Amino acid sequence: MATTAAFLLPAGGLGAATRGLRGVRAPPAVRSSFTPAPWTAGRSTRAARPAAAVVMATSTYKVVVLGGGNAAGYVAKSLVEASPDTSLCIVGREEVLPYERPALSKAFLFAEPPARLPGFHTSVGGGGARQDAAWYADKGVDVKLSTEVTGVDVASKTLTTASGDTVVAEEALIIATGAAPIALTKTPGWDLDGVYTLRENAEGLRLYDALQAAKGEPVVVVGGGYIGMEVAAAAATVGCKVKMVYPDKHMMPRLFTPDIAAHYERYYTDKGVELLSDGRLCEEILGDDDGKVRGIIMCKDGEKTEVAAKVVVVGVGAKANVQLLDGAVAMEAGGIKVNGSLESSAPGVYAIGDVATFPLALDGSMTRMEHVQNARETAAHAVASILGTAAGDYDYTPYFYSRVFGLGWKFYGRNAGANVTV
Ligand code: FAD
């Protein structure tokens, strides 16, 4: 059992020092005045230094998760269920406890009243408990919120945070840093006020406000995949005049066949969304004198068209957050390469969720998946691997789902072979 005694929580943060400890422990009022107590048994210590020196904390747990997102919440669920005495710490940069991220582009943006935390904390989407602050306190799981990890030493399984504190994993370090939206950094105007991407709760809140303020006004959504389709549907439902710009022949080319896409495109058009597809690119984002977005320049076959926009939402894909592990573990297909136990090339260091490239048992390919069901199942499998209870290698059937307007779809397996539409 861990005996972590000193821990830091940013405002709104949550922590419990040990498993089995009931209730949330108040963070020390003055960080630099802490002196290690004899009962910390070396698990969590702050070196005694001269008063003026910055004092760092070290906390030690059996299992540590880097990243406090969707998959991290399911690690907590699985570990608490299977081994409640194994100490666990989650370190994440968001200011909120792990939640079901898919909610952000759905009822979060358009429902009345909008879906908000704590309503969709993990593991409600997977049929589990709503893991709110009381749940983590009760289970003795320490969650360090608003904490940016800036360094990872895989040999000692140690994280260093932006404030210089260290968090050590005695048995297993799980990397669950997810992915970051690709910004159109090569497109002039990409950073204007009024240009949005959507990944985290805070971004969702900003986008919600922007769409509310743009009722009846033009909104351009760049991208015709998952995020583009869902945000466009939400913006149209809010009452914005939506145009979607994407270069592909049809929506969701990765998963939809042309006839299924045609059905959706008709549906969107009927809902008033204008589709600017088939080779059309967003070439420039235009701003006004105050640096606020006012439109885009769209280009097809060298022909440029100006499209007005009060809000521009960019949904053109995401990149796995692997930077901290660059050079430290093997990478493949843009993610951290793991084996069937979800263990990376560094012993005791696992990767799960969007950041993991794993062997897909179905066809033997090395695959990275940015889908919530994979986040949930990799979390459960990594915990089983760590505890030595996994029945075999990770065996996942790809599963995707989405909801737009009144339509929902589910997709199982791979988009390969012949298609038969029924
Ligand atoms: P995340 O949930 O992204 O969690 C990663 C966490 O790590 C984040 O909180 C991040 O802040 C933190 N982090 C990263 N780097 C650091 C660092 N250095 N220090 C501290 N913390 C760090 N999938 C579906 O199947 N269906 C859907 O309908 C669907 N809708 C989606 C809608 C949106 C808007 C988004 C963004 C995704 C959607 N997904 C959907 C995908 C799904 O949400 C992801 O697959 C899932 O969130 C992956 O979980 P994860 O834990 O790997 O990553």
Automatic annotation (TrEMBL):
Residues 398-420 form the Monodehydroascorbate reductase 3-like C-terminal domain. GO terms for molecular function: monodehydroascorbate reductase (NADH) activity. Its EC number is 1.6.5.4. Pfam families: MDHAR3-like_C, Pyr_redox_2. InterPro entries: FAD-oxidoreductase/Apoptosis (IPR050446), FAD/NAD-bd_sf (IPR036188), FAD/NAD-binding_dom (IPR023753), FAD/NAD-linked_Rdtase_dimer_sf (IPR016156), MDHAR3-like_C (IPR048618). Its cofactor is FAD. Keywords: FAD, Flavoprotein, NAD, Oxidoreductase. GO terms for cellular component: cytoplasm. Gene3D superfamilies: 3.30.390.30, FAD/NAD(P)-binding domain. Transmembrane segments: none annotated. Residues 61-378 form the FAD/NAD(P)-binding domain. Belongs to the FAD-dependent oxidoreductase family. This is monodehydroascorbate reductase (NADH). It comes from Porphyra umbilicalis (Purple laver).
